[in-house]
Amino acid sequence: MKQKRWQEITEWPLTVAAGVFLAAYTWEVLGQLTGATAAIAEVVINTTWVLFVLDYLTNLLLAERRGRWFVTHLFDFIVVALPILRPLRLLRLVTLVSILQRRAGAAFRGRVILFAASSTALLLFVASLAMLDAERSAPGALITTFPQALWWAFVTITTVGYGDLYPVTGTGRFIAAGIMLGGIALIGVVTATLASYIVERVTQQDETTDKQTQEQVRELTDEIRQLREELRQHNTTRPPRSEHGTAASETGSPGIRRGPSDAT
Q1: Torsion sign over Cα 248, 251, 254, 260
Q2: What is the pTM of this model?
Q3: Is the pLDDT confidence value at 238 over 60?
């Protein structure tokens, strides 16, 4: 319970910290900062990293079973450990993605779509920044501008892979492997969401048809009940027939007698 409470308290502060980190890193990479401005950007980046480390350590201490929590959250450990390397600093933004996923939870399909779209856009942007940071100064690099990096990221995450641009450094290839896995996950989310939408529409149509059928059956039942009631009232109000009348109507013409004049 304490760990869950801590996550609820730090949810928005960590989101803001991730946003500040992204702004500072974008400024540093695209602006190619030097001197005092570069130092300021580094201070902001390192400060946000310290916040992520403190959050990880606090979650570890508050976990009921620390050993199990550590094993099941190895990726969180990687997020705070590997970004010591400059191009891998953007792994810290996985914290923001995890927060978005936590807020989506088992929510409605619309929220899941929003989460998938926002996560994909974030992944494209940060992968482009990381790839540009890792590649542009390498010998024989093909990705030397941000538009090229963004085009490479888009082609890679959609699993198209034209091959016109590709990383030549080890760090760049590591980033490429990560975005490839992200592309596979994106396809899975889109496919599952589309399948869920189709199933929901078919279910709604079946429910509508069932409701219409039940309504028709209910109307027919009411009409039959009304007809029975009218027939019962008709039989109750009809006057009874006399016994002689019934006999006369039953015997008919043979009951007529001849007079004396008829005999002659």
Answers
A1: negative
A2: 0.62
A3: yes
